[in-house]
Amino acid sequence: MGNLLIFSAPSGSGKTTIVRELMARFPQIEFSVSATSRAPRGSEVDGRDYRFVTPEEFRRLADEGAFVEWEEVYPGTCYGTLRGEVEAIRERGGVCAFDVDVVGGVRLKGIFGDDALSFFVMAPSSGELRRRLEGRGTDSPENIERRLAKAAAETERAGEFDHIIVNDDLARAVDEASRIVAPFIAGRVMLYFGSFNPVHRGHVAVAEWAVDRGLADVVVMVVSPQNPSKEADGLAPELERFEAAQLAAAASRHPWAIQASAVEMTLPRPSYTIDTLRHLSALMPGKRFSILLGGDNAAGLARWREADRILGHYPVYVYPRPGDDRAKYPAGVEVLEDAPLLDISSTRIRALLDSGREHYRAGRFGDAANDFARVRELSPWSTEAAGYLSMIDDILSYRNTDLINP
Ligand code: ADP
Ligand code: 5GP
Description:
The chain is an alpha/beta fold. It has helices at residues 15-25, 55-64, 83-91, 102-112, 126-136, 141-155, 170-185, 201-212, 238-250, 273-283, 295-298, 307-313, 346-355, 357-361, 365-378, 383-399, and strands at 4-8, 29-31, 34-36, 50-52, 67-74, 77-82, 95-99, 116-122, 163-166, 188-194, 218-223, 258-261, 288-294, 316-319, 334-335.
């Protein structure tokens, strides 16, 4: 599990604001309080915003090796990341957030490597950056000019960061950062395997419930391009299924704790779950992975490649599906008895989409005609849809009695 987050930005871009918002969302994130040789401004509090020290004290701390890194960020003003601060946060099991200048951010990433995720925050334009610095009301006009002069050179280094966040709209920027932060800091990751063909609110309800129940820090819908036991030609295009799953996750009650992953699209096909588990475990050795499956899939698990290894190494959670034969669940899975049981399935949705049958049976011929026309667009060779369309035409012309069609 990664436990260091680095935020750098030209001054005034909003990185401090974003870090504070993220700390409100993720209580495990703690702010690494730096030491600085400048005086407090505005409402700043010693020990919360910075450790305010004299230039002499700063030099002494540097000589003692108290800093992971330090920088003369502005002429005559030094800032430094305190080693003791970082160690204390990590020992408590917290996630450490650094708010440092661009040079310091690149340096910290170099020191901590994969344990750290680095973000470059930028305002949408230089004009907006000036407005924010002026609006903040904490810097003199000369100071603002100094900060703006530095911003152009700093922005050239944005590519050295793991992620660039454009802070246009604050809520949107914080959401974007949350979606990146949540899986990175998650210790327990539940992998929800499926074709999601298509994703539906039953999937979302189960994922939400798993998060609510605290079964994992994040639930990842792993969209399989090709399930070994299913025919590939019944599947919608994989990117469409993935994008639909992303949209469904984003619209869920836990938009950053539930997300879709395309990892299996990067691996050999068909997708064997054990291969995906090995791949992810090697890539992220600090995470504890578990598996979430619908009862219909669990019934076949015993026949999966290296089923014993899956069951022996990873907790497998199964949520019952209507009509399951529970005797077929393999031994060792944990059955989630009180998971929401929605009477909905991808198979049924596909059947409805394919035929428009329900509309037709209910006498809603206009809706049915629209469905069949849509099927014809997607599959011009569908003779079944063509047949239904012409039949509905006949019915409508017969029912439509008016002056022209008496
Ligand atoms: P930094 O830490 O990067 O120097 P701050 O977080 O102090 O920047 O933000 C600079 C100013 O811009 C603050 O007054 C803050 O309230 C404001 N601000 C931050 N994000 C936005 C945004 N998305 N839209 C408008 N103003 C913002
Ligand atoms: P300010 O004076 O606006 O609080 O901060 C000036 C700059 O110094 C900001 O870009 C801030 O992120 C950066 N800074 C704060 N603490 C540190 C630190 O410990 N190391 C480095 N390199 N930069 C820091």
